[in-house]
Target: Transmembrane protein 138
Amino acid sequence: MKINPKRFKLIFAIQVVLILFDVLINTFSISYKKYHSILLIFFIVQDACLILALSLLLLSFFSTYVFQAGLVELLYDKFRLTIYICIFYFILTTVLYIWILCTETEPNLDAYWSAPFLTFFILQRLVSPTYYYFYKRAAMKICDPRFYEGMDWDHNQSNQ
Model:
């Protein structure tokens, strides 16, 4: 299989842009809390970007020689934590934004910034840098040409 570095650069650039969208929406969504329709659009775009980012990462996995040779377990072992963090972050983000949109109709700010909501909000904001780190690391690792070459993966894995 011929390795195309331009393809890796393009996919990685798209993945970085998707992470940047997520950072920007996390940063600026609170300032638009009075505008329900803008918040809803932000949240839909963010969830779409998270799904697209995970899809691109999985597509990168599926195009490797390791996956095509049937050694899915090796890829799963290397990237299991990243996949779990991506799914967990998506669920956290979606639940938080549903909660925000449901409490937006509350006129009382105490109901909006209740202790459970604030705890969940902080948890989502603390998990986001972890998601960014692991996602970017996995996106960079999957560009390694060794995943696309016909090597003796079973032998190399048993030596490690």
Q: What stands out?
A: Helices lie at 5-28, 36-62, 65-68, 72-103, 109-112, 115-141, 153-159. The mean pLDDT is 83.
